[in-house]
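Hey, weird one. I pasted the NADH-quinone oxidoreductase subunit H sequence into the form twice and got a warning about non-standard characters only the second time. First submission, copied straight from the form history:
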Amino acid sequence: MSPYLAAEDLSMFGRDPWWLIVVKAVFCFAFLMVTVLIAIVMERKVVAWMQLRIGPNRHGPWGLLQSLADGIKLMLKEDVVVKRADKAVYVLAPIVAAIPAFMAIAVIPFGPSGNEISIFGQRTTMQLTDLPIAMLYILAVASVGIYGIVLAGWSSGSTYPLLGGLRSCAQMISYEIAMGAAFASVFLYSGSMSTSAIVEQQADRWYILLLPVSFLLYIVTMVGETNRAPFDMPESEGDLVGGFNTEYSSIKFAMFMLAEYVNMVTVSAVTTTLFLGGWRAPWPVSTFWEGANHGWWPLLWFVVKVQLLLFFFVWLRGTLPRVRYDQLMKLGWKVLIPVSLVWLMLVATIRALRNENYDFADIALYVCAGVLAVLLLSFVADLYRDKAKRAEPPAGEPAAFDPMAGGFPVPPLPGQELPPVPRRRPRRERELIVSGGPDTHSDGSVGGSTDGKEASDG
């Protein structure tokens, strides 16, 4: 076996008694719910601070119980089912969106995979379970959650929710390809799809340093996957009122909001696991404190990293405007996917050379030579393209464009231009007309002065 492949040892999983499995499952659920409550208050407080507002300050000390009060309020509101809705799918959609959001946390390691902690005298791992294909499980679960949004938009029997559901489907397809390529780079470098093994491989250096492009790709795609600003097109209130959840109220609306924030926590935990060393202490702490990665301390480092990534979500929402939908699709298909595929091939080449025991200097030389060759070919192609454009005969005059063709206003096609719009009169001329200037009379038979100044003098 290659020394660069991770040795997956999952023998410590699956040995816990049933009551301990229940305790750990309840802990995972409670961790998500408490983190969601904290994230909602933090978002409202931070955005208020950015916008020079006070923010929530009534419920609880410093408004810390605002998110809990919002949840109670939503549960007590009237539950309305619209008349044209497909009732079965309409009710099922929030459940389909919420449940998969909780499932991904099952394979996230909160601490070392060894028997490091004791719960009621039972030695166990700080992870519910692990799989040889744990990352594929996370991808599959994240994909299922999108169906809840699509079904909600379709079953509402309304136009705006339908458009929001279609946007969510297209957005998921566009961004999951780049997300999978970013995952594949981590798989190639770690030699495993197990979350605990990936964290173990980051003992010396985190993958944010070894795979920075994969980290940036996943950061962008995770914002798109969670439908958060600036990629919140499925619920764009500016043009879709509320998007896929327009026709929802009460607890069903709350479940969509819960799914959004739980997904934020889940993708933050996945980012921490793949690129930020997981439960490992940061570099300065781990060097002078040997016990930083033992006992219950790894849980603290993991929570701090997740909270920093949640703050990143809030920071994006408070600073960036919502992009147009064509910009969203262009970024996904023309930027993220090509960059992720090129980066994946580069990482695969480097790993293959490392497995053949090539020196780092030789690998850097081969990589630089390949990059220079691609740049040279691109330069030559640009020269020939410009030469061909100059050799083309000049294009004729574009066809006349009628914006009311067929009786309906239509946009211009490529190469067509709108007819010039008549310019308004200068402001001074309009003021003269209103005050009785020379344009106020229609003919000489009207008994009025032809000049405002003469009339005032007379």
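That's the output from the first submission. The warning seems to come from a hidden character in my clipboard, not from the data itself. Residues 310 and 439 are 64 Å apart (CA to CA).
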